[in-house]
Design brief:
The structure is a single chain. By secondary structure, the chain is mainly α. 78% of the residues lie in helices and 6% in strands. It contains three helices and two strands; from the N terminus they run E-E-H-H-H. The chain has helices at residues 13-20, 24-52, 59-99, and strands at residues 2-4, 7-9. A two-stranded antiparallel sheet has the order 1-2. Strand 1 and strand 2 (7-9) form a beta hairpin. The longest helix has 41 residues, at 59-99. The protein is elongated and about 65 Å long. The relative contact order is 0.17. The model is unreliable at 1-8 (pLDDT under 50).
Length: 100
Amino acid sequence: MIGLGLEVTPLNYFIKSHYSSLSLEELDIAEINVLGSIENSEKLVSSCKKQLENQNLTENEKELLIHTIEDNNYQINSSKEIIKLIQSLKVKERNKNAKN
């Protein structure tokens, strides 16, 4: 489950469906890509937080930075849920391959 404010929702069905259709190799690649996305988003959030400390920002600039931080934090949380899904699917795929 992921949350944005008070709203808590599961991962979108289409996201689950997409990752469920991938092979083990494709899941490995997807995991690397999603982890990279998390890292980049975390760096962006950190940068925006530092910029918020600037006393010369207009209210519009502050609002834009805050909105960017919130959006990226939501994306980070969603991506972390996708990583959990990918890891679960990889275990299932390995188990299936081990039985064959």
